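[Automated response] Your request has been received and processed.

Submitted sequence:
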Amino acid sequence: MGTSRCSRVGRHSWQGHPLLVPRKWSPVEDLGCRPDRLGELRLARSHLRSNPPHGCTAFRYDWLVPILQRLCAAHAPAVLAFELANRSYFAAFISDRGDEFYIHFTENYNALLVEQETEACIFHVLVDDDGTVLGRFNLVEIHDGTAVLGYRLAENVAGRGVATATVQELCQLAAAEYGLRTLRAATTLDNVASQKVLTKAGFASAGPAEPGGRPGTWYQRALNYD
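Generated structure:
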């Protein structure tokens, strides 16, 4: 598209809020569970369009958001809408959760929040500037510096590099904020897109897996504390 790419991860700020510039994509900001602050982010995006950091064109800041946020109660309606809108799309890659999952969504969602408090898992959502959830990026089975990464991305933003950039950002977050040393992820053999995402994000094949009972491969990445 004739636009330059960010060559490194840099930190910038706007009105005291940290703005992260991931490699080869747009800024991803983590303001925590504050959906009410999306108006501020729109203003921040406008600010960065006019004043892009060195080495990044203003065009890239059309993607100031999606924002990577830690899952909280306020995200529930948007997460349900995300799951319903992409149900058939996800079923092509993973086993469908069945109607019961949606009927008892609130109960299941609250259980996730309780589980997250145990620090055995950390759930994240990728939120657009209108509050729409575009993806879920989770760290589960956290133990002894290792976690299993799982993610799903909305069909309407698939194939744009969003998954790769967010996985890369989550790897940095896992090391710097959560103290993790290794991330593992499993994908089915026929899910070529996910394999490419993991490979581009620095993961390497680490043996056979059976995600959802289907033949697949484990991928693994050692994390650096930079």
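Summary generated for your ticket: Residues 67-222 form a domain with the Aminopeptidase fold (CATH 3.40.630.30). The beta strands are 10-14, 17-21, 67-70, 122-127, 133-143, 146-153, 182-188, 204-209, 216-222.
If you did not submit this request, please reply to this message.
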